[in-house]
Design a protein that fits this description.
single chain, 517 residues, alpha/beta, 11-stranded mixed beta sheet, 8-stranded mixed beta sheet, 19 helices, 15% strand, elongated
Length: 517
């Protein structure tokens, strides 16, 4: 075991100089084949088993008894290889074999034979009497071989495993989790892992939908593969790298002034809902926007924000002001926001549509056409739907959106011509005609009223700093700036939640607002 050991993925992502790719199952198979073509037979599986065994011993150095659940595919082969190395290292290992009478891939069959010849104990199926003393369970049942929900003895094994006291290390994926989507059908069994070791490639499903709940702490091993870009399939999605984003973010210079960082307007706040636009406006101010205005739609709303008197509560902006501003529309706007949207869509230099503005857009074909005209006129827009709002815009159910979040985000971006932030676990940022991004920060603390308003203001505040006061029609790179601002804001918003509530406990949304620069 003289190769570089597995590394914790969160550390890699947060220190990486560039974005990190994820690949779907078809692309992963192609990359496996490319990686193996210049290596001796069986090498990749041997390296995978070494990586699993090494990580198992590093994570649980005092575990003497280790049980391996091995399926009859290549994931099971990785498990047999791991069992062989753990056995040689002096651990008491029992392999629970599934599908022993079915056809095996050649590499997996060779790994099973080697483990058996070395004296590794192999039992049929899940022998609960055997594994009751286990101190670590290695899940090598399915990995990326899943094409439908697990059934039969595999499903029963997964359900029993969820009730076991020992921690679980999953190989490649927690068995039962669809690697391409991270979406689970109702009632579908899935292993609850404490750790997951991804091998060679990363599955997008580890980072969105239910993936983050079931995968636990994600580790990664490249198996020593040295690949050039030639022939490698494009990623299904990129993972956002904060170091890379910081490196392209413009510095603030001494000679700049507030006008250098642009104007933000927030339109929203119908009766009883004025808190929503104030959350967005305060956030835009605190992340560094130059001047921030809020037009509250409730005619009886107060004209001063006592918490942040720097905010300007103003009458509705005219076309001239919209043409040089970054606008957030919809936060707490109710039905009243609809009357403001035609002019806003026509004139706003940069536009973030959130909450009730999205609902108005979904219900009005003329507004949808106005949004597409913005695209044709070179005016960038960011949409920030949660799954139900995305479903309304797409004309489907929220369950359909959640069943393949990547497809939903890409489809909505293509259909509207906007940058789409599909919120949720592993929020997605998708632009028309480009590879989407998966956000890697955040936790359950964001599941609180008002966190979406804070995010909308965060996007606008960062976007306005990229563009200053210039008009979107004459700006270069306006679409890449919109995507960059959205990615960076979503990441910082999630990171703030992690810092304030590491365990994902209840968090009031106003606390998410940064303290200001």
């Amino acid at each position: 075991m003289n190769r570089t050991p597995p590394v914790q993925l969160s550390t890699l992502i947060r220190t990486a100089a560039g974005p990190w790719p994820t690949h779907d199952s078809a692309a992963s198979r192609a990359i496996d084949a490319l990686s193996a073509q210049d290596l001796p037979p069986h090498t990749l599986m041997q390296r995978a088993g070494q990586a699993v065994a090494r990580l198992a011993m590093a994570l649980t150095p005092n575990a003497r008894r280790i049980d391996v659940l091995a399926g009859n595919g290549n994931n099971g082969g990785d498990g047999y290889e791991a069992a062989l190395h753990l056995h040689r290292a002096g651990r008491q290992v029992v392999v629970h074999a599934f599908g022993r009478d079915t056809a095996w891939p050649p590499d997996a069959a060779a790994s099973r034979q080697q483990a058996q010849a070395a004296g590794v104990r192999i039992v049929d199926g899940l022998d609960t009497a055997e594994w009751s003393r286990s101190e670590l369970v290695i899940d090598a049942l399915l990995g990326r071989g899943l094409t439908r929900p697990a059934s039969g003895e595999l499903a029963e094994a997964i359900r029993l495993l969820r009730g076991h006291a020992a921690p679980v290390l999953a190989v490649d994926l927690p068995s039962g989790l669809p690697g391409d989507t991270g979406a689970l059908e109702v009632g579908a069994p899935c292993v609850q892992a404490r750790w997951t070791l991804a091998l060679l490639t990363l599955a997008p499903g580890l980072f969105t939908a239910r993936g983050r709940d079931y995968a636990g702490e994600i580790w990664w091993d490249d198996l020593g593969a040295s690949l050039t870009q030639a022939g490698i399939p494009p990623p299904a999605a990129w993972l956002h790298s904060p170091v890379w984003a910081d490196s392209v973010w413009p510095a603030r210079h001494h000679a700049q002034h507030k006008g250098s960082f642009g104007d933000v307007w927030v339109l929203g706040g119908g009766r009883s809902m004025t808190g929503a636009p104030l959350l967005a406006a305060r956030t835009a101010l605190c992340v560094g926007a130059g001047r921030v205005y809020a037009h509250l739609l409730d005619p009886d709303a107060q004209r001063l924000d006592p918490l942040h008197p720097e905010l300007m509560l103003a009458d509705a902006p005219d076309a001239a002001r919209l043409q040089n501003a970054t606008v957030v529309a919809g936060c707490g706007g109710g039905q009243a926001i609809q009357a403001y949207l035609p002019d806003t869509l026509r004139h706003a230099a940069r536009l973030v549509l959130d909450a009730d503005a999205l609902n108005a857009l979904a219900g009005d074909t003329q507004l949808g056409e106005a949004l597409r005209e913005r695209r044709d006129n070179g005016l960038p827009t960011v949409l920030t739907p949660h799954p139900l709002e995305a479903a309304r815009l797409l004309g489907c159910s929220a369950a359909e959106v959640q069943s393949d979040r990547l497809v939903a985000a890409r489809t909505l971006a293509a259909r509207t011509g906007a940058v789409v932030v599909l919120k949720g676990s592993g929020s997605l940022i998708a632009s028309p005609d480009s590879i989407p991004w998966i956000n890697t920060s955040g936790n359950a603390a964001l599941a609180t009223p008002g966190s979406g308003d804070v995010l909308a203001g965060w996007i606008a505040g960062m976007w306005s700093q990229l563009t200053g006061g210039r008009s979107g029609k004459n700006a270069s790179l306006v679409w890449s700036e919109a995507e960059l601002a959205a990615r960076h804001a979503v990441y910082q918003h999630g990171l703030r939640a992690e810092q304030l509530s590491p365990a994902g406990d209840v968090l009031v949304a106003s606390r998410l607002i940064p303290s200001g620069h």
